[in-house]
Amino acid sequence: VLAGLYNPGDGHIDPYSLTMALAAGARKYGAQLNYPVQVTNLNSQSDGTWEVETPLGIIRAKRIVNTAGFWAREIGKMIGLQHPLIPVHHQYVVTSTIPEVKALKTELPVIRDLEGSYYLRQERDGLLFGPYESEEKMKLQDSWVTNGVPPGFGKELFESDLDRIMEHVEAAMEMVPVLKNADIVNTIAGPITYSPDILPMVGPHQGVRNYWVAVGFGYGIIHAGGIGKYLSDWILEGEPPFDLIELDPNRYGKWTTTEYTAAKARESYGFNNIVGYPKEERFAGRPTERTSGLYDLLKSKCSMGFHAGWEQPHWFYKPGDETGYKPSFRRTNWFDPVGREYKQVMEKVGVIDLSPFGKFKVKGTDSVKLLDHLFANVVPKVGSTNISHMLTPRGKVYAELTVSQLYPGEFMLVTGSGSELHDLRWIEEGVTKGGYKVEIENMTDEMGVLGVAGPYARQILQKLTSEDLSDGSFKFLQSRHLKISDIAVTAIRISYTGELGWELYHRKEDSVALYSAIMEAGQKEGIDNFGTYALNALRLEKGFRAWGAEMNCDTNPLEAGLEYFVKLNKPADFTGKQALKQIKEKGLKRRLVYLTVQTDNVDPEGNESVWHNGKVIGNTTSGSFSYSAQQSLAFAYVPTELSKVGQKLEVELLGKNYPATVIQEPLVLTEPMRMRLQRKGESPKL
């Protein structure tokens, strides 16, 4: 054994006894339990309540929670939802009494052998072990997906198949030699419900009022207590008690087909015990039907990443590059190409496909009132754009969006790819609760987005439009409709790179023509592509925060350094305003700081420990190599008293502590800031 980890609190429990104990506790506190009762239909009422039909009559409920295990899909279908779940055959083997096990004074710890891909524990005086077979050997119960769970299936089991798991049995015998002489008395094969990424789906579902799920638990009973508490807190408080965005049921959408679910479940089951790398990509089931207009044009020129069903370029190939996906804990084949793309944007001009953004149109008589209530920032004027945050009642950051008022009372809201339905659900809930008269349209799949950024961005786009793009005429954070090469676009002067740039929103079918026209027009200026890895390095140097990293439902906007976007003095009583006033009054316990880290061939990614005086005092939230400073950069949360500029800290990467220093942000000034200083006659530092 090269490395082991011992958890003294580990153990096992009988699921049946635990369930009965929880049921007894629930009854004690007034819960009404009816079983066995089949649900035959679900009817949503206009007031958001539900009628649950059963053979024994109708149950009326304020909300329903689907916790139906491998029947979860059937329940979803009753209301027109296709939950991406699939049953996997999981087998485990039980032996008869083994003298050496019987002789033990204390129970064996549960063993997980990642290389042998099995778990093993003591079962009375024998052993029990269960493997996770490879993608090729594992078995799905596909027929349940197409035809439903057979009526009456309950405690039944599948037929076992020892041959399928033989190599794991042999690996277990090698690690635990007493198994070699043991008799197998039982081989159990039963269904485990898998979601495509192995993680469960927990929380309220977008598109259906008061319908909640807790489904897809590949590890079953172990999550029961935690999920019960998490869901009940959320239902009672109106917001999640902590951030579990990875389990958001709305991470999936119409693009998660049955074929995709099956391919992914195979891969996830087979990868149960593999080593996970930073920036990990998994390729089964890709591409989905959700590709941008540029996918076919770009797919052979770059390394694509997967974002909420979309394929998006991470970095682009040039002759001489080592191409493909080469995962590593250290800098790998993308490191120099990303530096090249960084330079491209800083010195010339780059084009990036941003089509995966979530994009919503909001209009109607109450649209201004709605957004004023949902967002902590002011509502932008017609022709303007701003960055706005939706906060929870407790003052945490539920979402970050860019908001543009395109016409009086008509807005375009843009969010990150992974947050599309997560944010849409929150907005829809706000509309229902407040009774606002608005229409919301999700434009995500119909609309393409191109980002053009760098010193020559204006020069190139100006060749293609009669609209005046000069700084005086088209200011930073303005938006307008115009034609570029005769293609209708909504242009916003904004760029996550922090350089001079525009985001061009257009019909997806126009993407290729628009991209080609811009590339053609920029030949003289040396235009080229860039991907999301370079974008991340650029935004970090500018000190831009990212939702899901620097801010989420575990952070408030003040500790995240977002005061500029939060208008506590605006008249509207926006969600979270009162909580935020109290947080401000009490003072902050921690702050987001900006660090340089002296590393060697490794860069922070986020969620690494930050040390001070031999103690862990915080964690990084994201990081990257800075190609301008030629060293690592990171954002991190640390106690307020350790947040001053110049403070020395350490960041732990791959088991080693590297020296870090809190620096003044940003490392590189944004283009609008540099222009402002230039106009004042000061020379801006790049």
Automatic annotation (TrEMBL):
InterPro entries: FAD-dep_OxRdtase, FAD/NAD-bd_sf, FAO_M, GcvT/YgfZ/DmdA, GcvT/YgfZ_C, GcvT_C, GCVT_N, TrmE/GcvT-like. Its cofactor is FAD. GO terms for cellular component: mitochondrion. Its main location: mitochondrion. This is Dimethylglycine dehydrogenase, mitochondrial. Pfam families: DAO (PF01266), FAO_M (PF16350), GCV_T (PF01571), GCV_T_C (PF08669). Belongs to the GcvT family. It catalyses: (6S)-5,6,7,8-tetrahydrofolyl-(gamma-L-Glu)(n) + N,N-dimethylglycine + oxidized [electron-transfer flavoprotein] + H(+) = (6R)-5,10-methylenetetrahydrofolyl-(gamma-L-Glu)(n) + sarcosine + reduced [electron-transfer flavoprotein]. It is found in: Mitochondrion. Residues 237-290 form the FAD dependent oxidoreductase central domain. It is an enzyme of class 1 (oxidoreductase). Its EC number is 1.5.8.4.
